[in-house]
Each structure stands twice: as C-alpha cells, then as structure tokens.
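question for whoever is on the cluster today: can someone run the full assembly for these? four chains, 678 residues total. i dont have access anymore since they changed the login thing
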Amino acid sequence: MGTGREATLADVAEYAGVSASTASRALNGRGELSEQTRAAVREAAAALQFEPSQLARSLRTRTTSTVGFVVPDVSSPFYAAALKGAQRTLEQSGFRVLLMDSGQAADGEVAALRTLLAHRVDGLLVSTVGLDRDRFVTLVAGRATPCVFFDSAVADTGAGTVLLDNEAGIDLLVEHMLEHGHRRVALLAGSLRETSGRDRLDAFVAALQRHGISTRQEYIAGDRWTQQNGDLATRRILGSNPPPTALISSSVELALGALLACRDLGVRIPDDLALATFDDAYFAELLDPPLTTVAYDPADVGRLAAQLLVGTIRDPESGPHKLTVGVELVLRRSCGCSP
Amino acid sequence: MGTGREATLADVAEYAGVSASTASRALNGRGELSEQTRAAVREAAAALQFEPSQLARSLRTRTTSTVGFVVPDVSSPFYAAALKGAQRTLEQSGFRVLLMDSGQAADGEVAALRTLLAHRVDGLLVSTVGLDRDRFVTLVAGRATPCVFFDSAVADTGAGTVLLDNEAGIDLLVEHMLEHGHRRVALLAGSLRETSGRDRLDAFVAALQRHGISTRQEYIAGDRWTQQNGDLATRRILGSNPPPTALISSSVELALGALLACRDLGVRIPDDLALATFDDAYFAELLDPPLTTVAYDPADVGRLAAQLLVGTIRDPESGPHKLTVGVELVLRRSCGCSP
DNA sequence: TTGTAAGCGTTATCAC
DNA sequence: GTGATAACGCTTACAA
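^ ran it for u. tokens below:
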C-alpha cells in the first residue's frame, strides 16, 4: 500500500496503448475518437487511480479555477457565514477557494493578496481591513485578476462591491430608540478603518441630526470589532454625565461586551439602558435579555459577491457592479419592547 | 491601467540582462552570485512587478506548500475556530490553506478529497463526517499525501489524529448532574456517524453505568449537530414518562435547541430540568440562564493538528501520533449551581 | 559567477 | 481518429 509516484497522464496513455494527447482527449471528452479507445483510456485511468494534476493543467491553460478569499478573521461568525455562502456558489461554478486571513492588519492583507496572486487565482473576494487605495491599486488593480469586495471595500476600485445596507440598518435602530422616547442615544463603534464601521458611524450621526439631535462626543466610543472593546467602550460611555438612556451597537460582539459591562456595573437592560445592535445572531433570542437587532443574511453577502466575481471572470467587460444587501429590524426585549 | 500578461522570470532575466537561471538564483538566494547581478535582478523584478508563479514552481519542485482543510461545515463556530488555529501555524510554516466544505455528507467529503488530491496538496487536515475506512484508504491512504484527522477520525488510518477528550467531558457533565442529586439523566446526541458524536454517546452510557444507572432508550435522542435537532430531540425526551430531571447536551447547538424547546414548553431551567452541555461558547455566560458547559480551546485542536501535519510532511517517517485536547467544566446556572 | 538544457504533467496545434 | 511536438514558467544539474 506504500506508493511510488502518482500516476501521470503518460502512464495512463502507455497502459492504454495510446499517445498522451489521445489520453488527454479521451479523459476531457474533446475531439472525436473511437468509443473503443475512449473506453480503454478510461479503464487505464481507473486502474492506475489517475488523478490529473491541476498544477500542470493550470500552467498550460493559464487558469486555475481557484478564487482567493481574504477576510480579517475567519473565526468571526459573519465571515464564516459569508465564506460558506461564497463557497457554495463558487463550487457550483467549478471554483475552489483558497482562504487567507489578514489577521485584521493591512500588512497581513497585503501579504495575503501577494500569495494569492502568486498562485494565479482566477479572482479575489476580499473584505478589506482598510487598505489605502494606492496600495491596493498597484498591488492588484494593475493586474488582470478581478477583485470583488464585500462588507468592506476600497473606494472606487475593484470589479464589484457587495455591502450591507449600513445606513438603513442604523436608521432603523436610531428611529426605534427615538420612538421609545429616548433622546440621549449613544453608539458603540467598530473599526473606522473599514467602510462598514465608518458607514455605521456616519449613519448614526446623520440619523440623529435629521431629528434635530446633535451628537455628543462622549456618546460615541469603540474602535475594534471585539467583545472586549464593547465592554470598555460601554464603560466609558456610561461614565459620561448625564449618561445616555439608549445604546446602539455597531456589531453583535460589541453588544455582548455591553451586556457584560452592564451586568458588572449593575445597569439593568432595558430599564436603565435600552440596547439594540447591528447583526442578528442565532443566539440573540436566547440572551438575557433577548437582543433587539438589525438582521440580514451573511451567507447572502458571500453568495452575491461570488456571483459577481464569477460573472466578471466569465465576462471581464461587465462593468463594476455595486450590490446592497437589505436589512430588517428584529424587535426583542433589550430595547424596551415587550415580548 | 489595463494589463498585458503578468511578468515572467524570463522577462525579469531579459530586463536585467542575465539568464533565467541566474534570475531564479538571485531571487531565491541560492548559489553564489555577485552582489551586482543580484541587485540588478531584484531591481528588474521590482520594476516589472514580478510575482513568481507558484504553479510553475510547484510543478517543478513537486511540492505545493498548500494544505487541504476539509470540514463538514465551515460556518460552524467550532470549525471556524479550528481553521483559524490551523491557519496560523500553517502560515508560519509556509503553507497555504485550500478549504473545502463537505456539506455534512460523505459524497461531498469524497469530492473534496479528490479535488484536493488533484491539486497536489502537500497534506490534508480533515474532520470526517464518517467516511468508511475502505473508501478513505483507497482514496487517500494509498497515496503519499499525509492526512491528519481532527475532531472526528477514520479509525486506524491517517498520519495523526487530534481529538477532544470526549469521554472526560461527558464524565464531568454526568458526574456533576449526579452530584446535584439527579438520577434520571437524558442525553441530546449528535451525529453518530462521526466519532465525536459516537464517543460522547458511549461515554454517557458508560458513565451512568459506572454509577449503577442503566440507560433508558427514551432518554437518548438526536442525530444531527443542529439547533433544530436539539429542539426536536428535547421535546421527544421530555415526552417520556417519567421525564428526566437533567439533560446533557452533546453540543452547544443542541443545547440552544433545548433552551428554545423548554421556553416554548414552559419548562424552567434549571428548576424543572437541569441542563449542561459539551462546548463552551463566548456567549454562554450571557444566555438565559447562563449555560454550564464543558470548555476547551477549539483553535487548539486546529493548531495541534496542523503541527502534526507539518511534522509529518517534513519527516514522513514519524509514526502516527494521537493527541487529545483537554476539557474542563465551567459551572454556571443552567445545571442548578448558583452564580 | 553565470549560462545551457532538461524536465515537471498537462493541453493545443499541427500533421498524418 | 490519432500521434508528434511544442509550449506553459519555473528549478536544477551540469558545463563553461
């Protein structure tokens, strides 16, 4: 059961008593050949457990059927779900996924992109941590490899972009808090280097403005998408005088941090502080208290981005598309609504 | 900024006025060459934005520096975390990750393995959905590509295995329930085709046995790792007469389903039913009620598996290793403990 | 120190 | 229908 080399096309050809080119044609169903030789080749391939080398094939055909997927953190539920969505449609279109984690850092992202390009992937799916435009352009936009951004994009570049409707989401959250009668509303912000984080912050300020409420600096805190950052930022915000009566979170991790901070501080939700967050999670309903959220389908984001990318790979001329994934408000107890 | 072909090593060589082999040596730092030509080549590479084709390199060197990663479901937090752990150590060792999702099906897993083998990955990291031994052996064990299993393995094969200490985990859970005075203890089981699921079930039966309690068939239900299955199975179990007073769950998804079912049925936790589960989750403490769990580091599982794999790739002779990742009990309210 | 040539395993373009 | 033959872009003896 030990093994020598893997069988090559030449081995198969020899076994079947034909030339390599004939064997290739037989296996790929191209060209006309007799049923007889075709069968012989198939048989030989089976007998030798032949598995054609994608490496050699790719080198020759100049196409890898592989797509690079770059995210700040694979273990985040959002990215994992987006990956899953992308996976499925890519697989159906005959593409494989080469995954890279940028580790939430620009340098990591650049390294990932380099590696992927060196592998000659046919396309790129990236959620950027906030690369500056120049760096991105010289790195990939100068090449033939199409890149579709999702969730967080580099402005004015790429073959397509799929973003969540951040503005609509924050609007829903803010207006709902105002309907509950709150006027002192605070925000837990995520990373402002990513468009998703910045857009949510901007939408928050704009929404309040629209209702004649000017933003107080002390009511905005946070700069990373982590639970710990949510905890810290919440404590900071609650320290302001007067403290806010409502808190909107830019992500579920931040909201979890807020929950922890409030529990520790003895701040009751929603009685002392109303809370609602961007991102629904499958466990949101089971939290204490159940979280009011802005929901969307993260797998959809990946799926759409993958579709855009496949479209561009197949037809490079198709102009850059921008897609927005819709969101909806899910009312639960944390904002003050009754079940 | 459209683009022609990517620059090739030959282009770089020409630009620098040297031969391709010299260019290759200069870039890879092999052999002795004058600082002068080395600099010239580097300069040329930079000027042309040369990115060496891993494809060609791999074809020539017969090594891809790529590892295949196969899991039943990427979007599951456990696998996502394991992936993250593996990623990190693989990256440090110079390997890239080609990710495939088997979609919880044996056929999907076989397809994934085939694809990965065709890509000539240097190694495989797989959490099997329960492939039968023969199928696995003819597919990959007959080849030179080493395979390390994690979380769920195919028995007696592979270059290594990293499993959670399922038995210890279930023991902790069962004994804790017994300490609380429960005698009618039920189990939410996961997929029995995976070793993780089967091991937990077996450990459950054995643990009760050890304490002189024989297992009742009606107290065991479940066959998939989903929240929905947890919900259904819980309802079935609670329908038995007399119903159990304690419920142990094989995974956090199942436990979430149980929480939902109990809420719907008006069964209070822990008063009417004590609950505890395998798998800690970052939100376990924030649930209502906070969940008592068996915790471990999922990233560790991936990390160790990756280390084993890299070791085997570097030294194919190193015998098959079996590693077990430790677990610990985290007491919270759902089992009846007070905070 | 550098160049020449062969070869990795395919597929594509020709002939026959 | 089928078989040579030449790439694809790189590395590595072996020469020079």
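summary bc i know u wont read the tokens: Residues 8-10, 20-21, 24-25, 28, 30-31, 52-61 of chain B lie near DNA strand D (CB under 10 Å from a C1'). Chain B touches chain A through 59 residues (CB under 8 Å).
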